[in-house]
Prior knowledge:
This protein is mainly alpha-helical and about 90 residues long. The protein is about 70% helix and about 0% strand. It has a single domain, classed as Orthogonal Bundle (Helix Hairpins). Helix 1 (about 10-40) runs antiparallel to helix 2 (about 50-80). It starts with 10 loop residues before the first helix and ends in a 7-residue tail after the last helix.
Amino acid sequence: MFGFGRPQPTSAEKIAAIENELKVVAEMHSRMIKVCSAKCLDKTYREGELSKGEAVCLDRCAAKFFEAHQIISDQLQKEGAARGFGGGM
């Protein structure tokens, strides 16, 4: 209704946008698992459970990964909006 001269996205475009967002989140999750596991987990697998140090490291690594992802995502959205590619779902 308030598209400000822009056509509203169709259902197919909305579905494609959601599918793309899910793909980005899945890729980010895979990268986070790979990076944080390599950084935090002992490669000798001496115990079946995570040690306290490993658990804390994984928690911090994941938090930093999500924070960085959010900062980058926000910046890309600002740049897209400034260029007229604002997300109007």
